[in-house]
Design a protein that fits this description.
single chain, Rossmann fold, seven-stranded mixed beta sheet, 15 helices, 11 strands, about 15% strand
């Protein structure tokens, strides 16, 4: 049950999963760009969870029987993705905890069956302003704008009348939930944000401004350590709550143990990881202790100096995963990215943005590492040549292209039914190209 005004991990993960049922015929594994009936959404969110034929014999994460079973369903709203395609995007719940009134706004993730409209939202990686916070991802901001409009006056009134506004989402829905939470925090509301496998939203200082407005203790961000969606979108995009030592930092071991398995982004796998009935957020944070955040072991192993580094020979997905883990350790002392828990793509993008590659600070093993990265990317570097912006961009482009391939594979192979399919973030390569050097 909610404890001191905070949703439990089980409640938050169920709410995020059930946001997908607002999409027309998601329940029958044939989603279309429309809104599901209110009766079906109520059945799946608060009722028996047996409407439709989406894996009816398997566990359905309805809130019936939980402390939130008596919540009231408010508006079921639409969102606009891509070039103006509207579809069911989420719902609002309201409940009372003693004298305190609560509103829950749930937003769904990407659906590849809708084709370009959903995916194009994720590809629009240019920046735009967001209130007084700073620069954010333009595609996510566009969808957020439509969500706020489609909540309508009734939904906005319910949120503003509540003592606490809870914002919950998975994947693309987590990105939109972040902006919804920031919106209500700016309007003076107490907010709590719960995201699962969310991409990054805020660029440069925007993440810090949003984090300060919400209060870091009110941000519950869960990610599998090998979920590719939580890793893409390079610097200057930065996650909220990026510090491993914070109690609400919950980067937990991936369920498959396989680098960049498509299952690592599956919302039902997040329920398995943190959504147990006896689970609390401190338990989820404790799981993060099993993740090698410093990556020193992999770095020492991979930085052996010979003419044929073994990691170059790995299959592309595995190699990319190892490369991500390697850079944050190798560039320690040169970049801020280790502190912020970022990845290899971030570090290369940061080198481009800040011009560190021109300062002479990247010497010795770091140069060796970058040359190995260039070899991995199929880029020939002449002996004695310096690393230029064009070379770093080329390495970054190949890395992001491999990530996109992994996302497309996930879209093609992930199971239907309750299993939410991964977000594909493209376009960050274009973002890197546009950065000042």
């Amino acid at each position: 049950m909610p404890v001191n005004g905070t949703l439990t991990p089980m409640e938050a993960s169920y709410i995020a999963t059930n946001a997908y049922f607002t999409l027309k015929d998601w329940i029958n594994a044939k989603p279309t760009a429309d809104v599901e009936s209110r009766h079906v959404v109520h059945n799946r969110v608060l009722g028996a969870g047996d409407a439709g034929r989406a894996e009816p014999t398997k566990h359905n994460p309805t809130l019936k029987g939980t402390a939130l079973g008596g919540a009231k369903l408010g508006p079921v709203f639409e969102g606009t993705t891509g070039f103006g395609t509207q579809s069911g995007f989420g719902y609002l719940l309201r409940y009372n905890e003693g004298p305190r009134r609560h509103a829950i706004i749930a937003t769904r993730g990407t659906r590849p069956e809708l084709g370009a409209p959903d995916l194009l939202t994720d590809a629009r990686a240019s920046m735009t302003g967001f209130g007084g916070y700073g620069l954010v991802h333009r595609g996510f901001k566009t969808t957020y704008d439509s969500v706020q409009a489609n909540l309508g006056r009734d939904g906005d009134r319910l949120a503003m009348d509540a003592d606490v506004v809870h914002c919950v989402g998975h994947s693309l829905g987590g990105a939109v939930a972040t902006l919804v939470a920031a919106h209500y925090a700016q309007r003076g509301k107490a907010v709590k944000l719960y995201t699962f496998g969310s991409p990054r939203v805020g660029a440069l200082g925007a993440y810090a401004a949003m984090q300060q407005a919400m209060g870091q203790d009110n941000i519950f961000r869960v990610a599998h350590d090998l979920d590719p969606i939580s890793l893409v979108g390079p610097f200057p995009y930065i996650h909220l709550n990026p510090t491993p030592s914070h109690p609400n930092f919950m980067t937990v071991p991936s369920p498959t143990g396989s680098l960049f398995s498509t299952a690592n982004h599956d919302m039902m796998q997040y329920i398995t990881s943190v959504g147990g009935a006896d689970m609390w957020w401190s338990d989820a944070h404790a799981l993060s202790a099993q993740v090698d955040h410093d990556n020193a072991v992999l770095a020492r192993w991979l930085l052996h100096e010979d003419n044929n580094p073994g990691w170059v020979q790995y299959a592309s997905a595995r190699t990319l995963g190892l490369l991500f883990k390697l850079f944050s350790h190798a560039l320690k002392g040169v970049s801020t990215s280790l502190i912020l828990g970022l990845t290899a793509t971030d570090l290369i993008a940061e080198l481009l943005v800040t011009g560190l590659y021109r300062t002479g600070m990247l010497v010795g093993r770091v140069f060796t590492l970058l040359r190995h990265a260039a070899a991995w990317a199929g880029i020939t570097i002449k002996a004695g040549a310096d690393f230029t912006a064009s070379i770093l961009r080329a390495i970054l482009g190949v890395m992001l292209a491999r990530l996109k391939q992994l996302g497309q594979l996930a879209l093609a192979t992930a199971q239907r039914g309750l299993r939410a399919m991964p977000l594909v973030l493209a376009g960050t390569w274009a973002l890197a190209q546009a950065m000042p050097l």
